[in-house]
Specification:
mainly alpha; two-stranded antiparallel sheet; globular
Length: 481
């Protein structure tokens, strides 16, 4: 492999690994805030215990997510300096605001929440977690705005003297049409992930039955998580449908690659649920299809036209490959890796449907106080969070791989974005080092989570039952767990 392939592998590993933590953090901040608010409204001690329990799991996930996120930003300067130079004027504003405003907002109020038990009034303490959640949403907005600009560049001008894209309209970048459909899709997927995580953890503690008196509390958490996952799953489907239509408009090659559609269809393009073909995806041997569904997904009409890969390749070669004066263009095969886009698209959809369907099954099985304990339920508890995390990952893989060979669609191809001064040997060392570190962090994360889950929800403490209770002014700050 050359340095471009190595750098792409490294960035892919770093990005997908980091995104394992992001949706769970976004969703858990909302659910922990809901649990604490429920405790303040009802004074039901079960909600307080669940707040502290899932708050601790949130902190573990947040800490590892921060570490991996910092490395991701350094990637731009390590392996992608030409890309950073080209997009720096555009990316500088949203990423700076994300770091200085949104992330500091999250960190500050999360610290107040951690050390504010018995020091802050109850409503103010709960408000801290709600503000943390708003901070995660703000972070998501600015980061997704930057990524959406890569998918659909707007609000800029190209300076041929400097070879840079320069920001001309900040509002256009912030409210890019791709951004407006991507943000709700990602956020609802985060709520889905947190919901099934709540189901899995509380369900396992319920099934384990080591503390029979706590089973009603865990069952309550199971049903809350299932409701959130089911509603969010439906919202993911609706937002994903809208996103697919915008994607077809601004990146028709991505939709064609998602289906492996080589020839343009004038109307009624079928959607293949399952296809067997050659390894490169150019020949179809067997396909299970749904008539006209692809046309509807891409255009909103069952008779809509979907452009094929071959016609789009010719169009892109004429538009981008024949301009020797634009040094930031490069002639290339403008087709992404078809098997990757095809299967990642289906795994994303399938795992999202599995999460929503599993949540519906959990709600049905726990209706009227019923408490399933069978083997199928235990398997479902393990599969649901893994499926949600996998669906998020495949969604990002599809989003980024489907854009290839562009790093900024229509402006810069990936092979022109890599750092010219980085050798293949240096890139391999960096790739191996980060992969090893991330493997260690994965072990640490899993062991910390399992250890915290094993202990279950903390027992209520008589002197720690209310945020805002009496507490000496000179007492040291302490971790509330």
């Amino acid at each position: 492999m050359d340095v471009v392939d190595i750098a792409r592998w490294q960035f892919g590993i770093v990005t997908v690994y980091h995104f394992l933590f992001v949706p769970l953090t976004i969703g858990l901040t909302a659910l922990v805030a809901v649990l604490e608010t429920s405790w303040l409204r009802t004074r039901n001690e079960q909600y307080l215990r669940l707040t502290k329990f899932f708050g601790k799991l949130l902190l573990i996930n947040f800490a590892i997510g921060v570490v991996t996120g910092i490395v991701q930003e350094f990637q731009f300067g390590m392996n992608w300096s030409d890309y950073s130079r080209f997009v720096g004027d555009v990316f500088g504003a949203p990423l700076a605001i994300e770091g200085l405003l949104a992330f500091f907002l999250e960190s500050t109020f999360l610290g107040l929440w951690i050390f504010g038990w018995d020091r802050l009034p109850g409503p103010l303490h709960a408000a801290c977690m709600w503000i943390v959640h708003l901070g995660t949403l703000a972070s998501s907005w600015f980061i997704l705005a930057a990524n959406s600009w890569m998918q659909h560049p707007v609000g800029y001008r190209y300076d041929p003297e400097t070879g840079r894209a320069e920001l001309t309209d900040f509002a256009a970048v912030m409210f890019n049409k791709v951004q407006l459909v991507t943000f709700p899709h990602v956020v609802f997927a985060a709520y889905l992930t947190a919901g099934v995580f709540l189901v899995a953890v509380a369900g396992w503690l319920h099934v384990r039955n080591s503390h029979p008196d706590d089973r009603p509390m865990y069952l309550k958490a199971v049903r809350l998580g299932a409701v959130v996952a089911l509603v969010s799953g439906l919202a993911v489907a609706v937002s994903g449908d809208v996103q697919g239509k915008v994607m077809t408009e601004v990146q028709p090659m991505k939709m064609a690659a998602a289906e492996g559609l080589y020839q343009t269809t004038e109307s009624c393009a079928p959607f293949s649920v399952f296809t067997l073909g050659s390894l490169d995806g150019t020949q179809e041997r067997y396909a299970l299809t749904v008539p006209c569904l692809l046309s509807f997904l891409g255009t909103g009409s069952f008779d809509g036209q979907i452009q094929g890969i071959d016609d789009l390749r010719e169009t892109y070669e004429e538009e981008y490959g024949q301009d020797p004066g634009a040094t930031y263009y490069t002639a290339a095969d403008y087709v992404p890796v078809i098997p990757v886009t095809y299967w990642s698209f289906r795994f994303m959809i399938g795992l999202g449907m599995f999460g929503a369907g599993g949540a519906a099954l959990v709600l049905w099985s726990t209706r009227r106080g019923r408490a399933p304990t069978g083997r199928w339920f235990r398997v479902l508890l393990v599969a649901l969070p893994l499926g949600a995390l996998g669906g998020n990952s495949f969604g990002w893989i599809f989003t980024e791989m489907g854009r290839q060979p562009w790093v900024v669609f229509g402006l810069m191809t990936t092979d022109r974005a890599v750092s010219p001064g980085v050798s293949a040997t240096e890139a391999v060392i960096s790739l191996a080092s980060l992969t090893a570190v991330y493997a260690v962090l994965a072990v640490v994360e899993v062991r910390l989570l399992l250890s915290a889950i094993q202990g279950g929800a903390p027992e209520p403490l008589a002197d720690h039952g209310d945020a805002g209770g009496e507490y000496p002014d000179d007492a040291p700050l302490s971790f509330a767990y």
